[in-house]
């Protein structure tokens, strides 16, 4: 998940203000007695879950490469009695557990890691490096918390099986590949998630994601929460040659450099200031030698938006600037830049009523001040909601779960920092205390939405 600085800042403000308004009187499916049973089950399983988390953390896998992680998910769910299907959207996993009549609830955990070199110094830190399809070697680490997501889901699955006599309905647990490139959810749907694999239609859909807020803090907030996003590659073509004779070439590196600078004017000078719009260039790839002008240069850009019209303006601006620069440097019409649209997602919108409902048992679990229900929209993005596919009307809520050591978080606040670190940062840490807490949050959330077992 791509948590930008704005979501980091706004979540910090929400934490600092502590708050959410007090919940209106509302009953919950999770009684105090059932809450106590959840805590007991998770506590008894905590050592196993922490060990599992460390193992997944030490063996991170990039999008569509999650074979080891997917095998862990499939093995654990099968052992618990779930009906498991694998290989959906290449590496996706789905487990279904039917436990009598009642609601059907879908829960998703994403499995992929980042191309980031870990610098935490933890004993179980990742040292993994892999080769991409393009031949480049990159470091890989779970610097966004997807290792915790998988662990929470599997811990919740075990607790739900142990508490089968307390609830009634159907669980669908889904391990999703390739969230980071914003490709995995759509890949699973396109591979027949709801048709060929014949999953039951859910009545509710929930997911959870880490954030560097303090352990014990959860956001359950309705309305627009995350921006739409697009991943765009722009390939500038040129004429390569010797670095000592640039007049004999048409330099794509210069074209790319000029484009990156000019792209910034799209947001600052063509988008209405009140609109959300972000255009970030994350990579420029060109050449290998100091004295050789290459024939091509690749620019990798990322967009964030809420209004589809803004998206259209951003894309049109990129194409216009890129073509104009190429023409300026002498490229013919049949050699203008190639623009490739890769992964993308629409804005994520939480269901207001579902977010309010889920906040009730979470307040009982964590305390009123630790459940935030008023987080404003931010520019982070997700593709989780695309898993709904043809079931667009299914109520959906995406929880944000704090994973930073509370003492470390408090120290950062005293130093004037909104957070001790951000997602996708080499120093991103999921505090081990967050493993049982996140498992409790997931379990209580599922029990809230499923039917009570008849006595």
Descriptive notes:
- Its cofactor is Mn(2+).
- Residues 234-325 form the Peptidase M20 dimerisation domain.
- The protein is an alpha+beta fold and 455 residues long.
- The chain folds into two domains: 5-226 and 347-452, Aminopeptidase (3-Layer(aba) Sandwich), CATH 3.40.630; 228-344, Alpha-Beta Plaits.
- It has ten helices and 19 strands.
- The chain has helices at 5-16, 32-58, 67-79, 146-162, 184-190, 252-270, 308-328, 352-366, 406-414, 434-449; strands spanning 83-88, 92-99, 104-110, 129-131, 137-139, 167-176, 204-214, 218-219, 223-226, 228-237, 241-242, 277-285, 292-293, 296-305, 338-345, 348-350, 371-372, 396-404, 451-452.
- Strands 1, 2, 3, 6, 7, 8, 17, 18 and 19 form a nine-stranded mixed β-sheet that branches. A four-stranded antiparallel β-sheet has the order 12-14-10-15, with helices on one face. Strands 4-5 form a two-stranded antiparallel ribbon.
- A hairpin with a 3-residue loop joins strand 1 (83-88) and strand 2.
- Helix 2 crosses helix 4 (146-162) and helix 3 packs parallel to helix 4.
- The model is unreliable at 3-9 and 16-25 (pLDDT under 50).
Describe the secondary-structure layout.
Blueprint lengths: L4 H12 L15 H27 L8 H13 L3 E6 L3 E8 L4 E7 L18 E3 L5 E3 L6 H17 L4 E10 L7 H7 L13 E11 L3 E2 L3 E4 L1 E10 L3 E2 L9 H19 L6 E9 L6 E2 L2 E10 L2 H21 L9 E8 L2 E3 L1 H15 L4 E2 L23 E9 L1 H9 L19 H16 L1 E2 L3
Parallel strand pairs: 3-6, 3-7, 7-18, 8-17
Antiparallel strand pairs: 1-2, 2-6, 4-5, 6-19, 8-18, 9-16, 10-14, 10-15, 11-13, 12-14
